[in-house]
Specification:
By secondary structure, this protein is an alpha+beta fold. The protein has 2 domains: about 260 residues, FAD/NAD(P)-binding domain (3-Layer(bba) Sandwich); about 150 residues, Beta Barrel (Elongation Factor Tu (Ef-tu), domain 3). Helix content is about 35%, strand content about 25%. Strands 1, 2, 6, 7, 8, 9 and 19 form a 7-stranded mixed β-sheet that branches. The protein has a 7-stranded antiparallel β-sheet with strand order 16-15-12-13-14-11-17. It starts with a strand and ends with a helix.
Length: about 425
């Protein structure tokens, strides 16, 4: 009989199989994949470069998970980003860290990761069945019966559900029959549409450290912000979309957002403007900005939004105008209406409720021998390699537990 049947040939399913084979070469493992392809998301990830993990410090790493950070803690203690780097390097994949801490293969190609996974799968002789969509699971005595849509049938001692995240209920129907608790699935990681704002005309403008606020939900994030032809994007927006995924879904993506273009306080910004009024009094406001972080086109737009004529000199800016300008720099208000995917990247917020899984093993608390890894769980991270790290860490924990379980019943038989 099969020891472990893994459902799903994505990042987390593959890594579970490979880590288990490394820890227990005798384990009888099978992977079932519904489509004719595996590792599809790995291939397109990171713009085809596969952002495998992030170089964030261990103490702050889990802050990057809007959902699941507490649940992942144990898994990270056992296998964190440093272990990921070591694992890939041990298997001959050189990695590089970019300025924003994202880590990619030196080759700049996700094919490097796919080739390694495929090659190891072959080396460990792990069978992989394509076009085997699991449609039903049944517990029988001490093992599981697995039914596929093509009438194939398997018996196994342990199951690992690694089917990824999707918003459609159909994807999870067979899990619901097992009484597995699912939290609602909704999108995370998207950019904000601003169809009625003239800001869109400034596409391509970016600022390095904006603060974006969703005051109705007390959410605020800092980071680079980019204006696109449909709205606003960049790390600050994506982070807000992830941490605000649930309230934004409930408001149907109709919200007022506020941007502080510099991230400086009202008082500090006003003080800088006041100094400029003395030192640069002869210059016009539009032609001279004291803030090099704000691109010229954006500065002119802000001046226009304040209804400043183009001839207005700094010397002519009184207190009311100065405060109006400060307000537009520190509390620029925008109406969000709808969302757009960021470079096709998205993750699912929601999935299998982690309260029902043991964080030390990732096994279901009531269903013996049933495990889950990766995005199918209600765990998701912000963009930057955090979602793959959750796959590697969860898969490693499952592989360790499965190794112990297989040993325990093998020893009993002996
Ligand atoms: C465009 C894009 C770019 C991304 N880039 C990055 C990045 O650079 N870094 C990062 O950290 N994250 C990135 N992500 C997120 C990351 O890709 C996912 O979080 C990760 O791939 C999830 O892996 P998984 O194994 O849990 O699920 P998946 O990769 O979704 O794999 C699940 C597999 O299960 C199969 N399956 C589903 N149902 C069944 C069934 N019933 N029977 C059998 N098989 C089934 C599916 O066909 C699929 O092959 C990106 C996501 C997207 C969409």
């Amino acid at each position: 009989m099969i020891d472990v049947l893994i459902i799903g040939g994505g990042a987390s399913g593959f890594f579970t199989a490979l880590r288990l084979a490394e820890l227990n070469p005798a384990a009888r493992i099978v992977i079932l994949e519904k489509t004719a392809k595996v590792l599809t998301k790995v291939r397109i990830s990171g713009g085809g470069r596969c952002n495998v993990t992030n170089n964030s410090t261990t103490s702050t790493f889990l802050d990057n998970y809007p959902r699941g950070s507490f649940f992942l803690k144990q898994a990270f203690n056992t296998f964190n980003n440093k272990d990921t780097i070591e694992w890939f390097q041990k298997h001959g994949v050189e990695l590089k860290t970019e300025a924003d801490n994202r880590i990619f293969p030196e080759s700049n190609s996700s094919e490097t990761i796919i080739r390694l996974f495929q090659q190891l799968l072959q080396q460990y002789a792990i069978p992989l069945h394509y076009q085997h969509e699991v449609v039903s699971l049944e517990r029988k005595e001490s093992h599981w019966l697995v039914y596929c849509s093509n009438q194939a049938f398997f018996e196994t001692k342990n199951i690992v559900i690694s089917i990824g995240g999707q918003s459609s209920d159909q994807h999870y129907q067979w899990l619901q029959k097992l009484d597995l608790q699912l939290t609602p699935r909704i999108p995370s990681l998207f950019t904000f549409n601003i169809p009625n704002s003239p800001l869109k005309e400034l596409m391509g403008c970016s600022v390095p450290s904006a603060v974006i606020t969703l005051s109705s939900h007390k959410l605020e994030y800092t980071g680079p912000l980019l204006i696109t032809h449909w709205g606003i994007s960049g790390p600050a927006v994506l982070k807000l979309s992830a941490f605000g995924a649930i309230p934004l879904f409930h408001s149907q993506y109709q919200e007022t957002v506020q941007i502080n273009w510099l991230g400086k306080s009202f008082q500090e910004t006003e003080r800088i403007l006041k100094n400029i009024q003395t030192s640069e009094h002869k210059k016009t406001v539009r032609s001279f900005s004291p803030f090099e972080e704000i691109p010229k086109r954006l500065w002119v737009h802000i001046c226009e939004a304040c209804l400043f004529p183009d001839w207005l000199k700094w010397a002519e800016v009184g207190k009311a105008k100065r405060q109006l300008l400060t307000d537009h720099i520190t509390r620029y208000s925008l109406s969000m209406s709808g969302k757009t995917t960021f470079k096709e990247e998205f993750v699912t917020c929601g999935g299998l409720n982690t309260d029902f899984f043991d964080p030390d093993t990732f096994m279901h608390r009531q269903q013996d021998g049933l495990f889950a890894t990766g995005e199918v769980l209600n765990v998701d991270g912000i963009t930057g390699g955090f979602n793959f790290q959750a796959c590697w860490s969860s898969a490693n924990t499952v592989a360790i537990e499965l190794t112990k379980r297989i040993r325990s019943y093998t020893n009993k038989v002996v």
